């Protein structure tokens, strides 16, 4: 077999061939993994919905729909039904006001708008401080537990701001952000059910977060 002449043209042809083969392999791997990844994401959503709503026998993920809040934010809603009767609605919500930025939550509401439960889907808050939001607000101690509260009638700001919810110790910013996400979720619920939203149609009415000035270069002390 004749050896290829070492030239720029031949090197470019070889590199081009390698690039084509590599791209084809990557595309093939992507096709193979796309469906398992999609199924894993669905399973994750279904678990989060199951954790925050009463028992259901439908597929909330299959029945998913979107609503637009008065502030123009689009949120996904997952209705939980049993025997055709609505048991609750899980709303996927978020806040950009966390100590480390974006947090994502799934909040479940009963048909009357009361919070049934919640699950933190994503957060990057400080371990041992803001990261406690996953369990703090469902702990039956003092005024931590938000379950059973209705954002339309309960003052769901942190007690430091005159509200009814105890903030995570040394993590007030994270706590405000969490309640901001919960308030936004309620806005989505209210739109989906056609019920009265918060007094000023703003998720910030729940969190009180608009009055908070956060540090541009936060330290480990969230207070």
Give a structural overview.
The protein is α+β, with helices and mostly antiparallel strands. It has one domain (52-211). It contains four helices and five strands. It has helices at 8-52, 133-136, 172-193, 204-207; strands at residues 65-68, 74-82, 85-98, 101-109, 115-122. β4 and β5 (115-122) form a beta hairpin. The longest helix is centred in the N-terminal third of the chain and has 45 residues, at 8-52. The protein starts with 7 loop residues before the first helix and ends in a 16-residue tail after the last helix.
What structural keywords apply?
alpha+beta
Short description:
The chain has about 220 residues and is an alpha+beta fold.
Which stretches of 5+ consecutive residues score pLDDT under 50? Answer: 199-220
Looking across the biggest beta sheet, what order are the strands in?
1-2-3-4-5
Number of strands: 5
Contiguous helical run count? 4
Q: What is the general shape?
A: elongated
Distance between the termini: 74 Å
Beta-strand residue fraction: 15-25%
Topology at a glance:
Blueprint: H1 8-52, E1 65-68, E2 74-82, E3 85-98, E4 101-109, E5 115-122, H2 133-136, H3 172-193, H4 204-207
Antiparallel strand pairs: 1-2, 2-3, 3-4, 4-5
């Amino acid at each position: 077999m004749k050896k290829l002449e070492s030239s720029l043209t031949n090197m470019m042809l070889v590199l081009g061939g390698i690039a084509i083969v590599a791209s084809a392999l990557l595309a093939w791997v992507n096709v193979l993994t796309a469906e398992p990844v999609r199924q894993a994401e669905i399973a994750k959503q279904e678990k989060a919905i199951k954790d925050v709503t009463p028992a259901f026998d439908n597929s909330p993920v299959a029945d998913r729909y979107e609503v637009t809040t008065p502030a123009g934010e689009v949120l996904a809603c997952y209705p939980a039904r049993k025997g055709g009767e609505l048991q609750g609605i899980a709303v996927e919500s978020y806040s950009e006001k966390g100590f480390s930025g974006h947090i994502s939550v799934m909040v479940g509401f009963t048909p009357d708008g009361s919070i049934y439960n919640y699950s933190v889907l994503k957060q990057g808050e400080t371990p041992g401080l803001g990261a406690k939001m996953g369990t703090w607000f469902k702990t039956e101690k003092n005024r931590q537990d938000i379950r059973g509260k209705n954002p339309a009638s309960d003052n769901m700001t942190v007690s430091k701001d005159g509200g009814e919810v105890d903030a995570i110790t040394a993590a007030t910013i994270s706590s405000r952000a969490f309640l901001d996400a919960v308030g936004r979720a309620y806005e989505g619920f209210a739109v989906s059910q056609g019920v009265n939203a918060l007094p000023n149609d703003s998720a910030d009415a729940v969190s009180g977060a608009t009055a908070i000035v956060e540090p541009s270069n936060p330290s480990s002390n969230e207070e």
